[in-house]
Write a structure and sequence with these properties.
alpha+beta; 482 residues; five-stranded mixed sheet; Phage tail protein; globular
């Protein structure tokens, strides 16, 4: 017998429609950071950086510390592109990637002496001696701090007037000791502890965010490129992302197309670039610049990657390459840049609207290559990934519910409503979803497997605009009008 009811009551019923939640899609930087200035435990784990305070907590500051790619990314994110959040994975391990060193005869001026190296680890292994007497200066007689360039300054107590020069022994973070395997990473089969690129799998469980783009600046080997593609194209066996591999910074313009083909930099899930962007005397990694540039464009469209990054001001002054230790600037014209574009390589050129990113194509595009629009256009590929990720995210709650006709229709309706909202916002030409009987066999449905077919009309960039001019002789008649 049911509950006896005498009087009035009410019950709230589900609306049947739901609002699609769109998660944040940060850029992910796998690289090296000055954890000696921040959190020394920040090794092989994804760290969410939402503001300058977070950057200072983990890496000391948002300054561009030379030789450390995460610091470069933090500088670009907060001081150039003004984007957030980003996720960083530091692979520089102080227990493995360090070198002992001694600086002798460092001049003390006004009780302060600044050491030459960056990445100095301020721990029990740092020893300060009086250069003249070789007597160890006790810890309580000095303090250490880092300047804007990441260099360590030793400040002596005011009582130490006799010390004119000091010798300092220490360990420093040595980026040169990193190996390919440190970046590619691994997973311990017993503890499931992840290292390197394998740490990508921890981002969604930890932060409920899905990477939009993954970069590993300064790591330009073929094995790292392949691993970068494999680990970022599908994360957690479901979430889709893109990656931007690095080319060697010594690659000349005339070598880049052959390099791409020889090293097989050909993949629909990757975009590749040529050149090293610069501002004044600071040179940056193009993979980081492009990723943050795309994130800044996405932000203008509520985080939806519907707009091409091409022909948008990229905040840089130009590009160049290295010949030995010498940086050589290059000024490409449109025709020279288009030759790279024709081979699926993006670059930077100067246009009337400023110094712009130039290129719409993924690296799979080249003469005689792939032509599927979902694979060759950067914004189309990113939209497919974004829409797929968002639909999966918002339908996770539907998994394991009984698949009745109303449930199947509800899933279809909710997706269609969301796709229409993208269309109405001019972020999609159109889209629809169908639950098709021919794609849902009896055998699959008995096994609990159901499929919805989603048709998408992503917006394609107007890459080539032709204006045809023709002489029209009828205007000669105007000569006789009075």
């Amino acid at each position: 017998m049911g509950k006896f009811q005498h009087g009035t009551s009410y019950k709230e019923m589900p609306s049947g429609l739901k609002i699609f939640v769109e998660t944040q899609t940060p850029t992910v930087i796998v690289g090296t950071g000055t954890i000696n200035m921040g959190d020394m435990s920040c090794v092989n784990k994804p760290v969410l950086i939402q503001n300058a305070k977070d950057a200072a907590t983990y890496f000391g500051s948002t300054n561009n510390i030379k030789g450390f790619t995460i610091n470069e990314a933090l500088y670009l994110a907060f001081n150039v592109f003004n984007v957030k959040p980003i996720v960083v994975i530091n692979v520089l391990n102080p227990s493995e990637h360090k070198t002992a060193h001694t600086e002798e005869g460092v001049v003390v001026k006004e009780f302060k002496a600044t050491l030459a190296k960056t990445g100095i680890i301020n721990d029990e292994n740092l020893v300060v001696k009086n250069n003249e007497t070789s007597v160890v200066v006790q810890k309580e007689k000095y303090t250490c701090s880092f300047d804007d360039e990441g260099k360590l300054t030793v400040t002596l107590a005011k009582t130490e007037t006799a010390i004119k020069k000091i010798d300092v022994s220490y360990n420093f973070l040595d980026v040169s000791k990193l190996k390919e395997t440190d970046v590619i990473g691994s997973i311990d089969p017993q503890t499931l502890e992840a290292k390197g690129l394998e740490c990508l799998k921890e981002i969604f469980p930890k932060y409920s965010m899905i990477p939009s783009c993954v970069v590993a600046p300064d790591f330009s080997t073929a094995k790292i490129r392949v691993a970068l593609d494999a680990k970022s194209a599908v994360i957690n066996d479901k979430w889709a992302s893109m990656s931007i591999p690095e080319m060697p910074n010594t690659t000349k313009y005339g070598e880049v197309i052959a390099f791409k083909k020889e090293k097989n930099y050909i993949d629909a899930d990757q975009a590749i670039t040529w050149g090293c962007p610069y501002i004044e005397d600071e040179v940056f990694h193009f993979s980081t610049v492009m990723a943050l540039h795309m994130q800044s464009i996405d932000a203008q469209f509520d985080g939806v990657p519907c707009e091409s990054p091409s022909n948008k001001n990229i905040k840089m002054q130009g590009i160049g390459y290295y010949e030995g230790n010498t940086f050589k600037k290059v000024n490409l014209d449109e025709a020279e840049a288009n030759l790279l574009n024709e081979n699926g390589i993006s670059t930077i050129i100067r246009q009337p609207n400023g110094t712009v990113f130039w290129g719409n194509r993924t690296s799979v595009f080249q003469p005689g290559g792939e032509t599927d629009p979902k694979d060759v256009w950067i914004p189309v590929k990113r939209m497919f990934k974004y829409i797929g990720n968002t639909i999966m995210l918002n339908n996770t709650i539907e998994v394991d519910k009984g698949m009745t006709p109303s449930q199947a229709k509800s899933i279809e309706t909710n997706i269609n409503v969301w796709l229409n909202s993208l269309k109405n916002d001019n972020k999609l030409l159109g889209g629809r979803v169908e639950f098709k009987p021919e794609e849902n066999s009896e055998q699959d449905m008995i096994a609990g497997k159901f499929k919805w077919h989603i048709y998408l009309g992503a917006i394609i960039p107007g890459e080539s605009l032709e204006f045809r001019l023709e002489y029209d002789s009828k205007y000669l008649k105007l000569l006789f009008q009075r």
